Amino acid sequence: MRINLGWGLGLGLAAVAMPGAAAAQVALTQAAPVDGTVLEVSATGRVTRAPDQAVIRAGVVTQGATAAAASEENAARMARVIASLKSAGIQARDLSTSNVSLQPQYRYADNQPPVVTGYQASNSVSVKFRDIARSGAVLDALVKAGANQIDGPALSLSQPDAALDAARTDAIKRAHARAALYAQAAEMRVERVLSISEAGENDGGQPQPPVMFRARAMAAQADAPTQVLPGETDVTATVNVRFVLK
To answer: How far apart are CA 163 and CA 144, in angstroms?
Structure first.
């Protein structure tokens, strides 16, 4: 180790004293030349999965002549909404407050300062459904409990890693197939892979465009249960692969 350390110091001193030696030292770190033609291919792998979880936002909006009146009514109705969620089997870990607000309501007139006419209170919770098949029935129960604003659902995969790995595998297969096609067209063959890098991914966790629910519309069809259809979502991974052709 002493010999190696001294040799390293000697190179360092020589590099300071002699620019030519410094250039030679830098050259030692450069990659060896590739024996063959380098082909870079970009490919996207894709797999399709059915979403298995959903997230909605359920809330209560109330009006009152005073801030206290609006807040008290809102709190009472929201307590019934949360109780209905727990009665439906939603666990505490799948419930989180997403918004609480209290805002004055104004009346505007020309050339007059705005006048406070009352207050609006709102409270909403984010609800995660681990069983999409049950989410429609829970939505109906929320409306009956007093929820008058429901946004969602946003559908996604609960375990996207396995789907991503399958998409990555598909991307590599596609890259190899494309490289083989180019090599055949150029009357060459694929010798080996020089490098692989991942350029992007979509794990299916991005929510689909939400469906907007309103209590009034749902109450008009109280006899018809709400249906939530998961459909399918694409999981993708893009790779850049450099091949050596000969």
So the answer is: 38
Bridge pairing between strands 233-245 and 190-202: antiparallel
Q: Is 21 exposed, middle or buried (0-12, 13-18, 19+ CB in 10 A)?
A: middle
CA–CA dist 68, 39 (Å, integer): 70
Question: Helix (H, G, I), strand (E, B), or coil: what is residue 205?
Answer: coil
Same domain, 82 and 148: yes
DSSP state of 133: G
Alpha-carbon distance of 147 to 134, in angstroms, equals 18
Looking at the fold, whether 47 and 94 belong to one and the same domain comes out as no
The arithmetic mean of pLDDT across residues 159-183, rounded, is: 95
What's the domain range around 189?
A: 34-51+158-208+229-246
pTM of this prediction exceeds 0.85: no
Q: Are residues 168 and 239 in the same domain?
A: yes
Q: Token pair of 194, please? A: 């020089």
